[in-house]
Design brief:
It contains 22 helices and nine strands. By secondary structure, it is of the alpha/beta class.
């Protein structure tokens, strides 16, 4: 009994859960910002909180005051202060010079950037909303207000094309600016070509080729290596991940691993092309369904809604999305008041509430028991373990009614997440699914972290082929977490 209690407590006090629940009880110890941030309009901010033991927990925030808000955020938990100072020195050697600033200034910079970015449809990275925002004080009147200038001298957004965003992310950023700012009310700077003008056709073609060039060059260089050389390079590359705190250096390391992985899969591991075709056809049956707009009511997603037009439903949902990250409880209360205690509201509560893993599972089980035929609950319930994944895969096939695009996207995203915990798939299935996701995304359906999850699953298969120890064990820490976010 005591052992079980101890394990339960340990789960509750995981680093993420501790930060969400208790970090604000720790005193703010020090705050740092990259020098010349006012001129650069982009800053790296570090907030450090100190434990009674003398150890520290910190959050790091890459903040873009010109357009995108919090672009990158990571943390480390309960480490020796000496380790933190060493990390800071490494940062200064490789990228940034830091200076200390008052917490109030750091807080105002971060939240000014977030508020400005949200005007143009950009939200903080998920690691911020999920964890690192809780290393900051609550954003309320207790924090003295400091005016922070965002955008250019006229207050308009400026987007600088860098290597931080993928090609698809760059396209989405530019579309957002066209929509929310207007064609003549923002500046686009292509840092790779020193061009202030944006031509959509040229951008799609030229920048995509540039982004893929390094990966392709690496693959070409690796093609002539034999199996033993590839294994050595692959093992060495894995061992290097997590040894640097420089974001772009880490990205370069993972690009190398990606290239090595794909070359090994293409030249060393035997791939059955017929099995790929078979899996692809099976995926087509899993995903084949009639899809309708989520606001084409009545539909199963909004079952239980009384006397509410499609237009009003859309407005209510947009109002919820505007508040769900910053004022979650209030947003949930307001949408429940508008729509009633319907399954869709319970789904939003599951998705956006700050539950621990145990609390989430308990709430999901309650919802599924109460509404066993509601598709969103079935998707979440059957996707959560490899034991029930077989039933999960056929949910769309057996849907009683037309499936909304909202339900379809949740199904697609839960499907790809299955590769994070499943072990009952082979490399041919993974390749088939990778091809399938490209087709889905070509129809403007976003699959969250699909490329990252599939890449990690491929790496895992190559590790097992070579009998290499678990990659995750050697790459835990703030740098690896950041890349996955």
């Amino acid at each position: 009994m005591s052992k079980q209690k101890k394990n339960k407590q340990s789960n509750q006090l995981s680093p993420e859960n501790y930060i969400r629940k208790r970090a604000r009880n720790l005193p703010v110890y020090k705050c740092y910002i990259s020098e010349k941030w006012e001129k650069a309009r982009e800053s790296m901010i570090v907030i450090v909180r100190k434990h009674a033991s003398g150890n520290v927990t910190f959050g790091l925030y890459m903040v873009d005051l010109m357009c995108l808000g919090v672009r990158v955020s990571l943390y480390d938990y309960n480490i020796l202060e000496e380790e933190f100072q060493e990390m800071l020195k490494n940062f200064e050697k490789e990228a940034f010079k830091f200076k200390e600033i008052p917490y109030t200034l750091a807080h105002n910079i971060i939240y000014a950037a977030i508020e400005y970015a949200e005007e143009y449809g950009f939200h903080p990275v998920s690691s911020f909303t999920r964890v690192t925002q809780y290393l900051l004080e609550e954003d309320n009147e207790a924090i003295p207000y400091i005016e922070i200038r965002c955008g250019d001298e006229n207050g308009n957004p400026v987007y600088i094309n860098t290597e931080y965003e993928t090609q698809s992310e760059k396209n989405k950023i530019l579309k957002n600016l066209e929509t929310f700012a207007g064609p003549d009310n923002y500046t686009y700077i292509d840092s790779s070509e020193d061009s202030d003008d944006y031509d959509e056709d040229d951008y799609d073609k030229d920048d995509y080729e540039a982004a893929e060039e390094e990966y392709k060059q690496l693959k070409d260089e690796l093609q002539d290596l034999d199996n033993e050389e590839l294994k050595t390079r692959f093992t060495d590359a894995l061992a290097e991940v997590g040894k640097t705190t420089d974001f772009m250096a880490t990205v370069k390391q993972l690009t190398t691993i990606r290239a090595l992985t794909d070359v090994i899969l293409e030249t060393v591991i035997t791939i059955d092309e017929n099995k790929i075709v078979k899996y692809f056809k099976t995926l087509q049956t899993y995903f084949k369904t009639e899809i309708i707009n989520m606001f084409d009511t009545p539909n199963a997603l909004f079952q239980g809604v009384q006397r509410c037009s499609s237009e009003r439903l859309s407005e209510i949902y947009e109002e919820f999305l505007d508040k769900c990250y910053d004022e979650t409880e209030q947003a949930l209360e307001e949408i429940q008041k508008e729509l009633g205690d319907i399954p869709f509201v319970k789904y939003l509560e599951l998705k956006y509430s700050d539950y621990s893993i145990e609390e989430y599972d308990e709430k999901l089980n309650e919802c599924f028991k109460k509404h066993p035929k509601y598709l969103m609950f079935k998707i979440l319930y059957y996707a959560k373990s490899s034991d029930s994944f077989k039933r999960f895969k056929t949910l769309l096939q057996h849907a009683d009614e037309a499936v909304t695009i909202f339900e379809f996207c949740e199904f697609v995203n839960q499907y790809v997440r299955g590769y994070m915990y499943r072990d009952d798939y082979d490399i041919e299935e993974l390749i088939a699914y990778e091809i399938f996701t490209k087709i889905i995304e070509s129809e403007n359906i976003s699959i969250i972290h699909a490329d990252t999850i599939i890449a990690l699953a491929k790496i895992d298969k190559v590790k097992k082929y070579y009998g290499i120890a678990d990659f995750n064990d050697s790459t835990q820490g703030e740098t690896g977490a950041t890349v996955l976010e």
